[in-house]
Amino acid sequence: MKPTITLEYCPKCNWLLRSAWMAQELLTTFADELHGVLLHPSDTSGRFTVWVDGRELFDRKAAGRFPDIKELKQLVRDAVAPGKSLGHSDRPA
After folding, report:
1. Full-model pTM
2. How many CB atoms lie within 10 A of CB 35?
């Protein structure tokens, strides 16, 4: 079975739109590799965490920031499709 990405976000912080945009980007980039992307409103204030099948990939509080989309795509790629090229997103900044 293909993996599922979960974006756990704080609804009190109004992070739904950011999460939905990131979900769209992931679904577009990994259309063949993912089962889906789940948007999960958190009970914990200030939370933004990205999971792959229950394994944490990124935590905003631990990092002290949000991931940019390039970083998030690279993290997801490394977890679900290590051989996949991300084109311009793989080039150094």
Report:
1. 0.92
2. 12
Instruction: Provide DSSP, the chain.
Output: ---EEEEEE-TTTT-HHHHHHHHHHHHHHTTTT-SEEEEEE-SSTT-EEEEETTEEEEEHHHHTSPPPHHHHHHHHHHHH-TT---GGGGS--
Predicted pLDDT at 89: 73
Q: Which domain holds residue 28?
A: 4-90
Number of domains the chain is built from: 1
We report the CATH number of the domain holding residue 77 as: 3.40.30.10
